Amino acid sequence: MNRRNFGRLLAAGALLFSTITAVMPVPAMAQAGKTIVGGFDVGPGGFQGNFNPLTATAGFTWLNTYFEPLVIYTSDLSKLTGALASEFAVGQDNLTYTFKLVDTKWHDGKPFTSADVKFTLELARNAESGSIFAARLAGIASVETPDERTAVVKLSKPNSAFLSVLSQVMILPQHTLSSVPLKEVAKSQWWSTQPVGTGPFKFVKYVSDQYVEMAAYEGYRGGKPKADRLINRYFANPAAAVAALRAGEIQFTFAEPDDANTFSGNDSFRVIEGDSYVVNYIGFNHRAKIWDDLRVRQAVMYAIDRNAIVSSLFGGAAKLANCGYVAPQLLPKDLTGYAYDPQKAKDLLAEAGWDKINGDKSIPWLTYYNTPQVANVMAAVQAMLAQVGINVVPRALDVPSYNGIVRSEKWQDFPMIYAGLQNGPNPASLNIGLNAAQIPPSGNNIMRVEMPALTEALDTAMAETDPAKADVKWQQVCKEMNAGLPWGPMWVASRYGVASSNLKDFFWTPAPAGGPFISHPEKWDIAP
Predict the structure, then answer these.
(1) Taking the model in full, what pTM does it have?
(2) Does the first or last residue of the chain, that is N or C, have fewer Cβ atoms within 10 Å of its Cβ?
């Protein structure tokens, strides 16, 4: 597709794209002591009002400033290391995990013990708590606490992703949260009014739709934080956050590629770029029936000029994905490339009888991405699909509204989505979105994918605990995705953050879901 035609398609599609946003007021705050203000929940790294880590699908960069997991990824996302666990070991049976715990206290001065670990894991694996980890932790057979500094978790079957899952399970205080009835945990006011953690900063207040304020926890085992306060400002979109950054109102934010590029060469700012580790995909709701014929799903792939979109809208800063992975060791040979071929798309739709399946009926196309770049991407795809006879209507929602819809049974409200799912650093991350056992409310298979061959491939790879054999098993997962198209893989894009040069010892990495990863918030400092 040439640039002139691509531009026309984009312009035409953009006229039909509707977005729901909210304009949030700027908080007036007295800047006492060293205060670091950021748009930590802007863009794909998080979302507004993200307080409960049991239900959070993003935002762990911020949550990890006051809550902590047992284990955590290193800053380069290459391996897991201890957080609230000073040591951890896996038994020879690959079923027994032993955690030696650090000696620390909760923000209210109560001691952190193995009872908190047991309480948290039992809460997280119980779907009645609203936890999105229930299916991922269903293999826990028992949690034992031989003493206050030791927790032993036993699984019913080997799970190569178990430690990776634990990196996002923030340990919670039994002594304060256990009084909340189980079915009220998810929506409890505790999370936004009196949360208690073990991290370097402790909760002060939340001003609805404006900001969250944290104060340095002087009793933190890593030493008193250098900053006196952290403030997480909320913005309607990344552009508003970038404007606040330029104005000196905040010191950090996620940024769209075009915005990030405008900071290059400016000594007042530091641009941070890295792999998002997230594969963007077009999700086909398998309960909607209109996608039942594989030829229809294939037609969607052939109708989209992915190379043109990556070149024009991502500035080349993305890699095409033909399954859920782009890492070379996870890609088998001879994958179908689904190169742009609109005529082939039309032929496939004709063979499948698309005129009888759906015809020219419009198809709602939901996303939680609320950025100009994604609006342009979806408008371009919308125009390309229209050329072959598939009429979609993009609609962007705030994350809570989106999650409420896709985790419900109202399939007619979301027959199609544009979303992202982790494709690393642990390949098992895809299991939560594709395994038949992960269908809500148990898990996060929001597209209700039930493909026996794919589930079998995922289960086989998940059970492989030998790293030397694991890659081949994950390649089989890739093959099944590429052939069966449970959803349409698009690309893995780079991700950007911009930090003020006034920030010292500040670290951020574009981790999927915001991590968590080792970022040492206690060391973050700001020049006077």
Answers:
(1) 0.82
(2) C
